[in-house]
UniProtKB/TrEMBL annotation:
Gene Ontology biological-process entries: proteolysis
Zinc in keyword set: yes
The keyword Metal-binding is assigned to this record: yes
Occurrences of domain Peptidase M48 (ranges): 14-124
Protein name (record): Peptidase M48 domain-containing protein
Organism for this UniProt entry: marine sediment metagenome
Record key words, sorted: Hydrolase, Membrane, Metal-binding, Metalloprotease, Protease, Transmembrane, Transmembrane helix, Zinc
Cofactor: Zn(2+)
TM helices/strands, residue ranges: 12-33, 39-56
Molecular-function GO term, any one: metalloendopeptidase activity
């Protein structure tokens, strides 16, 4: 799964740089730049890249959370110890001073791992699931 995530992220960055190149070429027509190599186009390029990376973060973060949740499920199945899993997640959350449940917009925009509450809920569901 790490290899898949790496490939997906690499493709996303290549796409972003390709679109940024197109935007920079379009910027030559819109703004008084000499060419795409003109240093005056740097602010335009940075603005386009920032916008693209913010847009691409949404699906990339979702995919990363999806992979992490699958890894958590595998850990629960392998260890068959949901209480130990909850204890581990609690200690990690406390040690890292993480929020147990970030607000929705923060989770979608910035978080690439499931929240503490999502992981604890998963462990409780595993504990109470019929065998």
């Amino acid at each position: 799964d790490i290899a898949k995530l790496f490939c997906v992220q690499a493709m996303a960055f290549l796409l972003a740089f390709y679109v940024a190149n197109l935007a920079l070429e379009g910027g030559v027509a819109l703004f008084p730049y000499q060419s795409i190599g003109d240093i005056a186009g740097l602010p335009w390029l940075l603005m386009v890249l920032l916008a693209l990376f913010l847009i691409l973060r949404l699906p990339l973060n979702w995919y990363s959370r999806h992979i992490e949740l699958a890894a958590d499920k595998a850990a629960l199945q392998l260890s068959d110890n949901p209480e130990g899993f909850i204890t581990l997640m609690t200690k990690l959350t406390d040690q890292n001073l993480s929020e147990a449940e970030p607000v929705h917009w923060e989770r979608v925009l910035f978080r690439d791992h499931p929240s503490y509450n999502e992981r604890v809920k998963l462990a409780h569901e595993y504990k109470h699931a019929p065998i």
